[in-house]
Specification:
By secondary structure, the protein is mainly alpha-helical. The protein has six helices and no strands.
């Protein structure tokens, strides 16, 4: 039952938090955009961004204390692979004007055609990546 319950609960919480962000602040919950704007010179309007990022970090830290087994997976890649993957993800979020949270969760729910196309592109890129990685293994 846990295999269904946790993803369902997580998805509901993501939907709720995205709806609250849009309803209360009028902002899209796109993580790459929130972090990207937070890296610049701070402005008066940036408090919500910094609070949101702090909430993500604190929530993760609390969860690892309460349920450490949820973090028991391991990735066995080399450091250059992580660096290349990070650069490609960063490039992709800039090229696509957002990430899966902004487009996939918030954009599709607002019926944005651009977000639907971006999300389909993300999924196809993921499938191709898994296929290539599987073929190389």
């Amino acid at each position: 039952m846990e295999s269904i319950l946790y993803p369902l609960l997580g998805g509901a919480l993501i939907g709720l938090s995205s709806s609250l962000m849009l309803g209360t602040l009028g902002r899209i919950t796109g993580i790459s955009g929130i972090i990207g704007f937070s890296l610049g010179i701070p402005k008066k309007d940036d408090f919500w961004r910094l609070s949101f990022i702090a909430g993500l970090v604190i929530g993760g830290a609390l969860l690892i204390q309460v349920r450490p087994e949820l973090f028991s997976y391991q990735f066995n890649f080399s450091l250059p692979t992580y660096i290349i993957a990070g650069v490609l993800v960063g490039f992709g979020t800039r090229l696509g004007s957002g990430c899966t949270s902004g487009h996939g969760v918030c954009g599709i729910s607002r019926m944005a055609k651009r977000s639907l196309l971006a999300t389909v592109t993300f999924i196809i890129a993921g499938i191709i990546t898994v296929a290539i990685k599987g073929a190389l293994s």
